[in-house]
Amino acid sequence: MAIDKELIDKLLADYKGPEDLLGEQGLLKQFTKALVERAMQAELTHHLGYQKHDPAGRDSGNSRNGTSTKTVQGDFGKAEIEVPRDRNGSFEPKIVPRHERRFIGFDDKILSMYARGMTTREIQGHLQEIYGVDVSPSLISEVTDAVMEEVKAWQTRPLEPLYPILFLDALMVKMRHEGRVENRAVYVAVGIDLDGRKDVLGLWTSANEGAKFWLQVLTELRNRGIKDIFIACVDGLKGFPGAIETVFPQAQVQLCIVHLVRSSLGYVSWQERKRVAQNLKTIYRAATAEEAEQALGEFAVQWDQRYPTIAAIWRRNWQRVIPFFAFPAEIRKIIYTTNAVESLNMSLRKALKTRGAFPSEESALKVMYLALRNTIAKWKPPLHWKAALNRFTILWEDRIRTAMGA
């Protein structure tokens, strides 16, 4: 809707500086107050079905009944608005709902800052510095605590019956638990469904990462609706494959190449990391398992004298490295080049690093949930997904039909 420039000129006729527009008694606050009050009057007219002073309202069974004063919070600070009432008490404004004390969008600003790891004190200071708005710690807590209901619903939502690829990982987060600050494992499950959509299926916390707890996580995922998984990508945690195969017997467990490469490079000096990484690439990008084994032998000849641990790690995990060589290139690329888990963990760590430690497990989950919600919104289906899906259909059409109930 175009705004009349002459109207703007009239409003700014006495303008002398920013305070006249943005100050405590500035035009922005007055204009917002006037617009909101007029909008509520229009809502009441719609609710009653007739204009103010319209004879049609006589004997209608309901009528206007004055106003009540309400203080609301916005980017411009606090403002008192006059809320119209009806005699029956059935009118509920939409622009500033009953019992609501903040304008739409104000809570989103608080949540956005919270998602970026800002503390309550930092959010307070930011709102005061940028908007000149005084917000109490209890209000910030009220806004962020409301997210936990969303988290609980999200954590228990039904899942798709089939995820062709599932990535399972964990990261360590400092949080207070039973009176002391400790590093606790946060378990993350990322699934890719038949349409190529990536999604975080849940977050769970435990004292440390272990196969027994992963078994509980996988059982919960099955109870929430997952019937089958084709490929589960995991790190090298002992007992992890057995936990997966207990819950999803037909799943193929694939050791995450990203984890394996990162673990390998942990033994390498900074000067030689690039060369070692290029040589490792010849292993996991080989055409067949046989060629990959040959490439591993050549790697060992070149690097064993300086870094004997690297080839030993790959050989020790070889049976979990080679399953994806049975798949064509389009599926392999999704398995070993996907940055779904990596980008998610990066976003989570970015939000977490500003905190020394979280006061509770709940506060850590709130920040992580808000951070991952922002990240998921930017995700796109993997490249070559259609080709991968065609291959999955050729290999496991019966499993797709069974899982989808066809």
Mind sketching the topology for me?
Layout: H1 5-11, H2 18-22, H3 27-48, E1 64-74, E2 77-86, H4 106-115, H5 120-131, H6 137-155, E3 162-177, E4 180-192, E5 198-206, H7 211-223, E6 228-234, H8 240-247, E7 252-255, H9 257-265, H10 273-284, H11 289-303, H12 308-316, H13 318-321, H14 329-337, H15 340-352, H16 361-376, H17 385-404
Parallel strand pairs: 3-6, 6-7
Antiparallel strand pairs: 1-2, 3-4, 4-5
What series of H and E elements makes up the topology?
Answer: HHHEEHHHEEEHEHEHHHHHHHHH
| Widest sheet: strand ordering | 5-4-3-6-7
Largest sheet composition: 5 strands, mixed
Whole-number total of structural domains: 2
* Radius of gyration, in angstroms, nearest whole number: 29 Å
What's the number of extended β-strand segments?
7
> What overall geometry do the principal axes of the alpha carbons give?
elongated
Gap from first CA to last CA: 50 Å
- The total count of helices amounts to 17
Overall average residue pLDDT: 81
Q: Portion of residues in helices? A: 40-55%
Class per helix and strand makeup: alpha/beta
Strand content: 15-25%
Low-confidence stretches: none
